[in-house]
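Field notebook, page 236. I keep forgetting to write these up properly, so this time I am using the form the group agreed on. The chain and the ligand, 3-phosphoglyceric acid, are recorded exactly as supplied. Prediction of the bound pose follows.
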Amino acid sequence: MAKLVLIRHGQSEWNLQNRFTGWWDVDLTEKGVAEAKKSGQMLASSGVSFSEAFVSVQKRAIRTLWIALEEMGRTWLPVTKDWRLNERHYGGLTGLNKAETAEKHGDEQVKIWRRSYDVPPPPMEKGAEFDPANDVRYAGLDVPMTESLKLTLERVMPYFNSEIAPKLKAGENILVAAHGNSLRAIVKDLFSVADDVITGVEIPTGNPLLIELDDNLKVVSAKYLDADRATELPKF
Ligand SMILES: O=C(O)[C@H](O)COP(=O)(O)O
């Protein structure tokens, strides 16, 4: 039986400012750093021994992983970074304040953009202030202009299934540091969550989710290590 731990990055500067972030590369706040440290301490006392870690190419997740590994005394662990674990691309909403956007377009519309399964936000305009298309880390990549959760899942899961699933099936314990919506995609798939139910699944920042999987990657048990900041998990 393998263990998979999913950590959403600690609080970011734009989580704090309540702005749509997506692919924009913001850093952790002090609180985010503290959440990452606590995650590492809880992982160390969980006694789970990891063989490797995976992370997006965004610094809020990379720093969360590094801080956690440091606390665990595991900075030597092999780490693979891949854009397919990035946050979902928030399109033309990137950089906007979530509350101001709700005042302008209505709560219902913003809820659809944030939580519907397959309605993508309006696309990013080419060359707009927060367009990551020319970022050197994405050179040669057809950077999306917007993504729904469905589109996010369609790039996260092929990566998960080809790079991470075989290791779990071989019994390795794996740590993944990523984002609210890229992790929501993994949870949707592993827990077989229906399209209209996944909207209610909120993954807290900096709170490791420990999932035990059988040889067919069926969920056997799941819990957040910080029980005080846990949210409801889907049935399995
Ligand atoms: O990209 C963002 O703004 C957040 O990381 C996730 O946002 P959400 O809760 O609006 O999906």
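OBSERVATIONS:
- The chain has a mean pLDDT of 97.
- The two ends are 16 Å apart (CA to CA).
FOLLOW-UP: compare against the apo run.
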